[in-house]
C-alpha cells in the first residue's frame, strides 16, 4: 500500500504541490518517498524515510517544471532498500518515469521473462520496475515514428494482459504529459482532480481537498487516462472485468475524509460501528464507557456508542509523533511502538467496564499490548470489539499480510483469541455485516481476500509461497536491523 500523486499544468514549481500532496498521503506509506518533475529534462529526488525527512527547501527548489509525480512507499515485495524507492525511470522509448500503489502477484515470473526474453535488467526488487519495463517494452514494439496517445493506450493494454495483481499507476512521459491507469479490477484507488486548468491524479480525494482541486472522478478499473501538456484529456477503457476495490481501504487504510469509488470512508466506518453495536448488544455486554483506539476507529466507536446508548470518551491518548504500527516492517518495532504510541487516561478508566473499539486484529500483538496498557489504569473489565471481521488469509495486493502464519484467527477460535489477548470479552463483526456496512447503497462487490480467501485474480500456491518467502526475508533483515 502506497500513496501516489501526479500533477500537470502547474504554474511555477510543481515540486512544492507534489510535496504537499504527499504529506496528505503519508498515512499510506512511511518507508520512503520520491518526486520526479519535468521542465524539458527530468529532475528526481527520492530517499528512505518520511516525506518531511526526504525533502527540504533546497532539493524542492530544483524540482522544477509544470508536471511531476510523487510517491510515499510502504514496502510489500522487495527489501525496502534505497534502490526500491520510487519514482523509477527508463529513458527509452521517449523517457518514462513512473510511480505505483499496489502489488504484482506474478512479479517473479514477469521479472524473469523481462530479463531472459527481453534482455531488460532490473536493478531493484520493486514490482513497479517490472510494470515500467513491461510498459516500455510494449511501446518499443509499436515502433511508431512519433509519440501518440493511441500507442500509450495500447502499451497499457499490454500491461493489463501480462501483469496480474493490484496496481494504480501514474507515469510522467518524455513530452511532459501524464498517464494514469488502474488494474482490471480496480483493487487500488486512483482519482482525478482539476484546478484552473491544472489536472491531478492521487490515491485519495483528501489530496485534492488540501491542494484546492475539484474532484472530477475515479479512474475506472481497467481504464487509462492521458493528460497532455495542453490540458487535453483522453480516456480509454481497456478491460471489462468486474470491479473489486479493496474493502480494507474503508476498514483501515484510507483517511476518513476521503471518498473512494463513490463511498465516503467516514460514512462507511459509521455504518460499521452501528452494525457492531447490534453485535455487542446480542452478546450481552454492558460497558460503562466506550473507548476508541485512535485514530482509525473513532467514527465507528462514536456510531457504536450512539446506537447502543453508551457513554464514549477518549481513554487512550495517542502520541502523534509515532508512526502507524500496522505498516512498520517488523514485529519488535510494532510491539515496542504500541507502548510509545498510546497512554491510558486513568480518570476515564479506573473502576469501569471498558469497551475498546478497534478496526482489525491481525497478529494479536497490538490488541494484547493495548489491553495490558489499559489494565494498568485499573478497569474492572476490558472488552474488545472489532468492526472488521476475522482476518485469515494472506493479502497479495499490497497490504503487509503476506503469510498465513501472521493471522491469529487462522489458528485460533474467537474464544481462544479472547484468552490470548487478555480480554474479558472479544466481539468480532460478522463478515456479512462488514461488507454491507461498507457498501451502503452502492452496488459494488469488493476484494475481501484477506477476510474470505476470495482472490479477484488467479493466485497459485507457488506465487503465494514466493510472496511469503520474500516477505519473511524482509522481516528477518529488518529484525536484524532493529537488534543492531
Account of the 3D structure:
36% of the residues lie in helices and 22% in strands. By secondary structure, it is α+β, with helices and mostly antiparallel strands. The protein folds into 2 domains: 3-243, Aminohydrolase, N-terminal nucleophile (Ntn) domain (Glutamine Phosphoribosylpyrophosphate, subunit 1, domain 1); 264-483, Rossmann fold (3-Layer(aba) Sandwich), CATH 3.40.50.2020. A 7-stranded antiparallel beta sheet has the order 3-2-4-1-10-9-11. A 6-stranded antiparallel beta sheet has the order 5-6-7-8-12-13, with helices on one face. Helix 5 crosses helix 6. The radius of gyration is 23 Å and the shape is globular. Mean pLDDT is 92; it is low at 478-484.
Provide a compact summary of the structure.
The protein is α+β, with helices and mostly antiparallel strands and 484 residues long.
Provide keyphrases for this structure.
Rossmann fold; single chain; six-stranded antiparallel sheet; alpha+beta; Glutamine Phosphoribosylpyrophosphate, subunit 1, domain 1; 18 helices; 484 residues; seven-stranded antiparallel sheet
Looking at CATH, which topology of the largest domain would you report? Answer: Glutamine Phosphoribosylpyrophosphate, subunit 1, domain 1
Per DSSP, what share of the residues sits in E-state strands of 2 or more residues? 15-25%
Would you identify the regions where 5 or more consecutive residues have pLDDT less than 50?
Answer: 478-484
**Tally of domains:** 2
Quote the average pLDDT. Answer: 92
Count of extended strands: 21
Largest sheet: 7 strands, antiparallel
Quickly count the helices.
18
Rg result = 23 Å
Helix content: 25-40%
